[in-house]
Amino acid sequence: xxxxxSNPAPAERNxxxxxAEVDGLIAQxxxxxxxxxxxxxxxxxxxxxxxxxxxxxxxxxxxxxxxKLALTKFRLAILRSFTVEPIVPLLRxxxxxxxxxxxxxxxxxxxxxxxxxxxxxxxxRFAPNAVVLAVRAGEAAxxxxxxxxDLAPQAARQAAERVVNGYEQWIGAFRKHSQxxxxxxxxxxxSSPSLGVLDSQSETGQSGLIRQINRELLRIAEGxxxxxGLDYDALVARHGxxxxxxxxxxxxxxxxxxAGYLLSMAREWMRFVVPLSAPLSGRTAKVLVVDLDNTxxxxxxxxxxxxxxxxxxxxxxxxYQALQRAxxxxxxxxxxxxxxxxxNLDDAMxxxxxxxxxxxxxxxxxxxxxxxxxxxxxxxEIAQELNVGIDALAFLDDNPFEREQVRAALPEVAxxxxxxxxxxxxxxxxxxxxxxxxxxxxxxxQRTEMYVAQKQRAGAEQNFQSKEDFFRFLEQEAELEPVxxxxxxxxxxxxxxxxxxxxxxxxxxxxxxxEMAKQxxxxxxxxxxxxxxxxxxxxxxxxxxxxxxQCEVDTFLLSCRVIGRTVETALLAHLAESARQRGRKRLVxxxxxxxxxxxxxxxxxxxxxxxxxxxxxxxLWALDLESSTLRCPDWIKLKVTTETxxxxxx
Amino acid sequence: xTASTLEQVRNVASDILGIPADKITAESSxxxxxxxxxxxxxxxxxxIEEKFGIQLEPEDIEQMKNIGAIAALIERLxxxxx
Lengths: 650, 82
Fold this sequence. Notes:
- The complex is a heterodimer of chains A (650) and B (82).
- Chain A is an alpha/beta fold and 650 residues long.
- Chain A folds into four domains: 1-66; 71-281, Rossmann fold (3-Layer(aba) Sandwich), CATH 3.40.50; 287-435, HAD superfamily/HAD-like (Rossmann fold, 3-Layer(aba) Sandwich); 442-640, Gcn5-related N-acetyltransferase (GNAT) (Aminopeptidase).
- In chain A, 44% of the residues lie in helices and 19% in strands.
- Chain A contains 26 helices and 19 strands.
- In chain A, the strands form three sheets. In chain A, strands 11, 12, 13, 14, 15, 16, 17, 18 and 19 form a nine-stranded mixed β-sheet that branches.
- The termini of chain A are far apart.
- Chain B has one domain (3-80): ACP-like (Non-ribosomal Peptide Synthetase Peptidyl Carrier Protein, Chain A, Orthogonal Bundle), CATH 1.10.1200.
- In chain B, helix 1 packs across helix 2 (38-52) and helix 1 crosses helix 4 (67-80).
- The radius of gyration of chain B is 12 Å and the shape is globular.
- The chains are: A alpha/beta (650), B mainly alpha (82).
- At the A-B interface, helix 3 and helix 13 of A face helix 1 and helix 2 of B.
């Protein structure tokens, strides 16, 4: 039964008991459990006091466990024009709940210009992974903010241009000194413009000019890799300017945000930190597994039947449609959907296929587990079927009992706490930082279709006598090309997300790949693959580095959905052939084993490489390019675009 | 002043100042607690506003000389609320 009322909730632990329990567990040395209880405490009571407790115990755990603390380290610098110190513990506690050990550097008040321009500043010495530029309209554009009524129209437009030019200059300087991600706050519009309703009659009023500055800031951000806009104006509007602001705190402590909204600011920053930290953790929520009864629709299909369950355009079914729209939006961002429900298969499938109120259908789900088996077992199977790690799963279920069981059995799964009221379900999914993406490739947008085609392919494979027959039947076409502005985001994404067929597991950000591509001795290739069942998109990346007589393979990876179809041989053969054409004598490469890359272990050996040396578990392999017979398999139709160094990449 | 308001203030102060609650009394103040500086005072104000759902005026904050005074202030504001 997945009806939440039919199962008792797990024993409620209240926040003060949880604190005592955490301290007890730390004293006993049960650090893993202490960390889990600490995360639970934060989920139950995300308040300023709790944040201080959480961060102080997190510091204890780090001290006791040293490098064994199973969290991803991330360094965030905040450049600001206002007091952010009280937000920092909230931010660190929130990050901890996402498995991130966040170290925060806060710049001095209003020194962000010097900090960004001076390559020796404390900002760059901190070596951040990401930087937030949190400047308010009042400080960034004081003339427009405070003295607008005194400005002639021409002077006001010039003031706006000066603001934009300033940002453009600082951001350009920042990119010269650092490859960290940069998150730029937009400027908020005044809630009471100086000319009242007259202001909204013109594009060049106070609000209009600030809107114009914000548009220009986005244009600037789009001109750089790894520079992103945070829509502070929209954030304030979402919560309501009157609620968000606290004039008393602004005047007495330079803190413009009311106590109740500091957490909202922290959570907005987390929507950037989570996707930005994914390359370091190798963890991204790739699949959202959803329950059916009382989650995807109201009621229990097995008891209430097709006519009884609630999903449709009217209340209360509308709440479930809103959730379904949020799920479809995730699927358009490349997040796969799957079902895990305790139900009779026929009942559930009838609702999924035929209920007129349903917006998501069976075809939107890459995997279905509708049975009476334990949910954690089903989640394991879903991960296996979709060829992703358990830590790539997120789980959505209205039933706190099921959530707690999954948390206990599979702590790697991102379990989403649904509020009690179904009207709030959609917002809970939309606001979950685990599903945020900062770039979107065309592969992301078509992922669900690709998985459906993959299922058909797997069915076809069983009908062939030999592998070669199957490869010929597939009619694979591959397209090899050097990295370009168009493929940069996907290439970086693959280095960040590929775990299984990845020889060195080196993670790169977009700015790093762009920088590498500019160096004449570095060569970055991508491979796209199509076959008779559909388009896989860009699925492989190879990065090679010329060093005198030899060429070293820095990175060689292939998305799991094409492993074992000899695409890897085509890519390697091209790497060898292009190195030979540049006059290199040997192609060498390391295999660096990880917990997950066993599928790539024998790759060099199978392709005629010889082991040169070993260093611990790592091994270095070499191929003599003059005697090698490595060729692209004849069943792959290969199209090669010759290398041209990409121009105009920032 | 009821014990429960004082108790809650001591718990909040314990979290913010990183000191066990049983070491905090009604008389504890920035003079007796070493790391109770102006930034911690702001953090304490924010934590109290959030916890009790009140907004403190600059004049109120000036009266927050010690833990007992904070608890008394909260009770006064809560009883004055409509």
